[in-house]
Amino acid sequence: MKNLVLLIVTLGFVNIVSAQKYSTRTGKVTFEASVPLFEDVFAQDDSNIAIVNADNGDFASVSTVKNFQFKVKLMEEHFNENYAETAKYPKTTFKGKIANFDKTKLTATPQKYTVQGTLNFHGVDKAVNSTATMYAKDGKIYMQGTFVARPADFNVTIPKMVMKKVAENVNVEYNYIMLKQ
Hints:
Layout: H1 2-18, E1 21-32, E2 42-53, E3 58-64, E4 69-70, H2 73-83, E5 91-98, E6 111-121, E7 124-137, E8 140-149, E9 170-180
Antiparallel strand pairs: 1-2, 1-9, 2-3, 2-4, 3-5, 5-6, 6-7, 7-8, 8-9
C-alpha cells in the first residue's frame, strides 16, 4: 500500500514538472470604447499576467483592473469607481484553451489560432472567442490577438448622460511575450 501511494505521488509530481509552461508578468492589454467626435476612451495595462501550458494549449491571464491607465485621469477615476467598481471587483481573469495548439508546429512564422474560454469581469463570467497570432522565437512564445466585449454583457451600467460617448462594443487587444518557466 505504501508503495502504491508513493507511485501515485511520484507520477503526479512528474506530470506537474514535465508540463512546459510559458508565462509573463508584463503582458500588455488595451481596450478602446471610443466613438467618433468624442474624447478617446482608451486604457492600457502593461502588467497583465499570462500563462500557457505548451503541452496542451491551456491558457490563462489575470489583470488587476486598477492597473488600466487612461490618458485622462478623471476618466480613469470614473472607470474605477463607477463602471468597473474595482473596490468590489479588483481583478479580471480569462481561462481557456488555444484550439488545436501544438508547440512542435510553432515556428518563427506567425500562425493563427482560436482561443476559447471564459472572461470574468465585474463579477460576470462570459464565453469569449478570440483569434490570436502566435509564433516562437529565441525560446519565447509570442501571442497577440483581439476580441470584442460589450459592457452590458458584464452588467456594467453606462449612465445616460455619457452613453453616446462610449461605444457599445469594446475592442480588447492583448500582446504577450512568454518565457519558459
